[in-house]
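Lecture 7 notes. Example A: sequence first, then its structure tokens.
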Amino acid sequence: MSNILKVTTPALGYENAVNKQNLNQEDNIGIRPPLKPDNAAETGNKNQFSSSKDGPGIFQESNLANFIRTLQDVPKLREVMGKLLFGGTEHLIESGIRAQTAKDISAMFQLLNLSSDEVAKFLKKQTEGSNRLHGPMFDLLRKVMSETSSVELKFSILEFLKKYNDMSSGSHLMHNIQSEIKEIQKYMFHQDREQLEALAKQLQPHSLTTNEKNTSVLKNQIIPFLGRYISTTGNMGKVRDLINLLTYNTSRYENGALDSVMQAFRKMEEFPAFQKKFGGMTSEEVAKLFERVDFEKAAGKAEWSEKFLDVMRAGIKGQAGTQTREMFLNLLNGMLVNESVYMPLLHTAFPLILEGVPIFSEMWIDPDEESENSPSGENGIKILLKFDMKEVGFFDILMYYQNQKMSMVMHYPDKLPVKGEDIRKGISEILKKNGMEVEYLSVEKGKESIPVSVAFPKLYERRNSVNVTI
């Protein structure tokens, strides 16, 4: 799949390297009011690019096209989560899920019972958990990234962030590596399996101090052993695919070593624009800071999400019933879309039970949305919020916020027993109560769902993506 290939490309999208596309206002929803999602079917200069069913200028066989098609399938995520969240245990069993798995799902969602006072804290925790790169240091890096015109500095920042992400994922990567080794053993003869098992026992639980030794065991013993095994047996099937995955995760694991991350940090220190923001912070201090960080705790793990992953694993392996395996695969595909190299947005999806009402919600956030119509030239925040409430229906809310001014479009279900004017009045009062000026507000009944790729046209812009094939 294109969204998990992690294609490595040169740093792209800089304004001095390519020409900015001219977007017609009627083709671009929500940059500034009025927001017109119904009229925004395409974006970009249509004469400049060749067209395809996936979007303007997108080659149908490219990874980007596969990514766009995955975005178009995102509603499947809501459909599957609706079945899991809205249906009780009996309904889940009727849909083909085994009784024990249905009970596990029901128990998992009981952990999500929230009062209205707890929702804000829950949402903040969810969004923070979706983004590892938050905190004062990364806020400063974003400022440097937006203010500098140096392509070399921007590339150095991106390289540092890539290595930091691998470092913060060290425990997860080691877990994957060990799981892949165990899976490989299933396809080996007894003697080879015992040798690989003995080598794998040398791997230690991950920490910044054990990273170097684990990397050495993987690169100098385990991977060479597997290479010899393939050469001797000529096994070109499942084992070879697993070995490729193992080497990829080993590369990321090595890339996340503390020395590697600090080497990237020292590279940034060579630029005056970086020193201007980080002049009082040395690489030695940063290294000591990273050594004290508990990356697992910082990731914001919750008990319900761990149980959710357990249910997902069982479903994908067919342990929840072979006829429901495709349903769990669709769920996984929808949740992995934010791992794509093409995703310039923060995407978070979460279920909750608010005052006894089950709700499944997704948020797509661009914290740096460009606004060509802004007199000051400043960027704002664009949010696409989707949520489905049991026995109420599906809601779409598209928002643009800048300088205490809010523009908003809401689509609400036909059967909601409330007048649109009452909803509009209530939203206006809430916004004003929180110090925001209502610049534009549209409330409409029974409209179609707003596609993600329409709400955020930059997903189609070639300066934010690359057409490649593998």
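Example B, a different protein, same format:
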Amino acid sequence: MKKFLAVCLSAIMVFSLAACGGGDGQDADTTTQAAGTEAAGQDDSGDDSSASGETIKIGLMVSFTGFGVQAGQECQALADIFEDVINNKHDDLSLPFAEDEGLPNLGGAKIEFVVGDQSTADVALSEAERLITEEGVIGLCGNFSSATTKTAMVAAEKYGVPVISEGTSMTLTDAGYQYFGRSFPGDDQFIEESFNYLDYLNEEKDAGIKTVALCSEDSEFGTNIAQVEERIAKEHGYEIVENISYSQTATNVTSEVLRLKEANADVVMMSSYAADALLFMSAFKEQNYFPKMLFGQRGGFMASDFTLNLGSDSDYVLTTSRWNSDMDNQAAQDIAKLFSDDMGITLIGDTLTSVWDGVLIAIAANQAGSTDGDAIMEALHAGLDLDPEDDPFGLEGYKYAEDGQNEYGTAIIIQYMDGILNTIYPEEIAGMELAYPAKNWDER
């Protein structure tokens, strides 16, 4: 399943020529669409399309430029794997539709992930519209940020096409979208779980954590997280001893690191993208300073680039997450092994989530027996019929409230050790105990 390399290279070439969006990376002979209009999967009379025996397309939005390229390649490779699992019979796998060939309630219709670019908010808008109007996708998923989700939603709301995105901003669920879904927590729940964990360490492990320093990039992602962190820290009784805002395009963060070093907080909580997370790690090492606990809020701390660039220098870093490859259920182990065998690297939670949301769109369409956007949303709101044994996340369910939030989405906390991500909380699924306080560079 190495075709994702050719897919990505082809897409990047088209992107560079077209300026505002990439090609879908699919062969020209696989353009069969669900019956009905391109935008909403309905014919002119308004009847639903059953897509019996045809190919159903799901848009996969990834980045073609910057640090998102690695993540985009991984998402495309995983999409290839899920296409194979769903479209062909795999009796040995505990994954959705593995025992079938295609979507049974849609006449065995096959699925195809069609790639679009979401490198910037403007590009995400034009690409979302292209995937809907030209490719006829029945829904969109992908490696969205909150900002690119918002622009993609402009097209999705216009044409009545569902989007499941893990953009974590609370503004997404406050926007009143009709075609939006989020399977896992938003920033508020992730941050609440972060401080619940600190409480747990103090109460159960006598950790003595009292002070917190915040360090966040200054776009919507980092600014929103910092505001919620500040509020929830006070609610839990922690003292904020430093609150730093910096530009994600910074090329030198020595002054910020020196401020953190001077504050000497028990916990440093960071909100960063991939490039700036790596920049901070380099500056920490140059200053021979490492926080007692460095706690990331996903973003760059969950990117494959992080550990690929740092190796064991990533040790002791914590981050919130949605999934980890050491989770002990058969579906998780099946998809982790398929990905590792194909790519030669460990599957990370953000990659799995980005593509899994597309699988959930397929499950909803199959449950509805229709590719119509309203029918898919109705299935999402009613709750998906998914065998828990086929869910690599092990959630209690997928039932999306009117604001789009899955009522059963949960967060976990993981820590790097020996360059590997390990689940440390909740305790009942932990693969190892927290290493705290972290060793400084000269002690490793």
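Note on Example B: DSSP finds 13 helices and twelve strands in the chain. Confidence is low (pLDDT under 50) at residues 1-50.
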